[in-house]
Amino acid sequence: MGIIIRLRSPSGTLRINVPNEDTSYSEFINLISLQLKSSDPFTLFFDQKLKNRLPDLDSDSQNITIKELNLKHGDMIFAQLPPSESTVSGAPSSSSMVYDTINKSSSAVDSKSQTSPTKKELPSQPLLDFELEKHSGSISRGKDSDFCKHGSNAMCEYCMPLEPYDPAYLSENKIKHISFHSYLRKSISNEQREAGLSSGPLPNSVLPLEELSFQAKKDCNGGHAPWPEGICTKCQPSAITLQQQEFRMTDHLEFAEAGIIEKLLTWWRETGTQRFGLMYGTFEKYDIVPLGIEAVVQAIYEPVQTNMLDGIIVEIESEAFLNEIKNVDTVAKACGLELVGIIFTDLTDDGTGQGKVEYKRHKDSYFLTGLECRLAAKFQSMYPNYSRWSQDGTFGSRLVTAIVSGNENSDIEISAWQISNTGVELENSNLVVSSSDPGFMMVRKPQSVSTEKNKNKRDLSLQYIPDILYKYKNEYNVSVLKSAKPFFPIEYLLVSLTYGVPSNPRPMFKSKSPFFTENRHLTQTPESLQSHLSKIGLGSPEVTSYQSAAQGLSDFHLLVYMTSFGILSTDLSTENSDNKSDLYLLGKIVQNGPNQSEKYFNELAESSSWLSLIAVLNSSAGNNTSSKNYANTNQQNSGLNQPHNVSRHTIDESTSSSNSQGSFGESHDMMDVEDSQIWSCRHCTYDNDISTTWCAICGLPKDD
């Protein structure tokens, strides 16, 4: 007569159908292997504490029968699997977390088995998080003269400290969202709260944070084919109820000085088209909000883009863009900075001639469009926030999206936003698309998505669209639960931040002669770089004043362009070696300031690669002096009407080639070369790139 032995493993509970009590131990192990669908070794135990172990399968034990092991019908044994088998899709399953929680005593399983192999390879969480974990975040209150009846050394419910997530305090101080670390303290267990956060998660405890997932699980062990051939409640994602996120990963956006924004606005004032930039800075403690975090912007990098009157085109998924940003990230890291967000303009002159702009974004229209929401979500997904309190190793993102637009007074103002974790996962799971109405997002219809178009993303070929719902108040002020299909308001995905500029500016980059901003009209060229280095006293190997030269190097755009030649060494891992890289030395010069960087400046001046760069630039400037002078004059005369994608460096090279004789009398040939690169719109006379067929200003076709 057959018997059933129950087997509990991190992947769930299985039933092993054994023919009879005389079944050999080796046959019993084979039956378990078939049920577990694994060829990897596993260990069996009689008890759930994993102390009383079953014998290993060898020549002595293979002929032992089930009866001799004292296993009877209905008994349960426990299996310990390797770490690679105890996780599903790179993250711990819910059953494994429960199983590990039951085994609170010491066991053969390392406490780190809760985390996936992927998490072990992830970077550590930022130092700022370790620092904030040391603080309780409690909000101190003074003695209440009306209600407190005790002495100065006592405390009561009216004066005891409040938790950082206290609703009354947040409402009184008009704090719309609690900070991330306040939310973390609200989510942890009582045992963890008593132990504190500075020592890390308690052993064998369930981590409080977990990334959202809105996709059907492909490796379900429910005994059915993967979606779309089959699905069950274990692998089917739950219905999504959209609601305002109660916390925010970053609480405040601050620019180190107002001049950083002014440089970005210069483009719009000159061309009337919109501009996009990447904000680089640091994340710091923000004392206005309990356990708050602020993003302090030190520089804005403007990548390659197509600018129009009413929008911007940025190929953020192209290989060229990713390589460009990778190089900029390296320079920022050398300066102690990181990408803290993105910024773009949405400005339209109101026509009054008083410097006023149109008021577009408000509660009756929209704050972010669907396309902007998806763009911000993609960037937040590219730069996740690493946390040791998350089961996945990451939780949310601190990246901020800033928009420069008009306010109710028609003045230029900045608003700061983040996309909620739900909004980011909706974009990652490919569940939403932009709507023609800028204030709404559409839910995508079920379809198969080619993985070839998503090489850098998760496999979306087995797409499942769960139910998406949201609540709103109808005309009778009654809460109504409504399906988000086909569209829903974008406000459900937004998290608002505060913004400001310090009264006492604290910029990191202090150059008094800033270099050209990248990808603009007056393009950065080797000639302009040589001229700029000569201006700040670095045009030759002999430097007369290191302080003025070091101050001139304190320019983010200059550092990025100098490293783009491939001559300077950029390996940042040479910090502890005697032969430090040029980029490391440049970063130290910027961080320490001109008065405390003589040591690093002397090392840079003696570097062979730095001397090579100076020699190459001087040689380039000497060979192109005459053509450079003429081309620069021509650029200044037509710079404001030149679209971004006309390469001035290309024009310089072309004019230099056509004027190789050094004669300035052949100006007609040089103008022909430039004219061949553009076409003038017959409607608005704007000079467009020859590769385009529509006008970047008025939007009308070339041949109309």
From TrEMBL:
Residues 106-117, 625-645 have a biased composition (Polar residues). GO terms for cellular component: nuclear membrane; perinuclear region of cytoplasm. GO terms for biological process: ubiquitin-dependent protein catabolic process. Pfam families: NPL4, UN_NPL4, zf-NPL4. PROSITE patterns: MPN, ZF_RANBP2_1, ZF_RANBP2_2. Residues 653-665 have a biased composition (Low complexity). Belongs to the NPL4 family. This is Nuclear protein localization protein 4. The lineage of its organism: Eukaryota, Fungi, Fungi incertae sedis, Zoopagomycota, Kickxellomycotina.
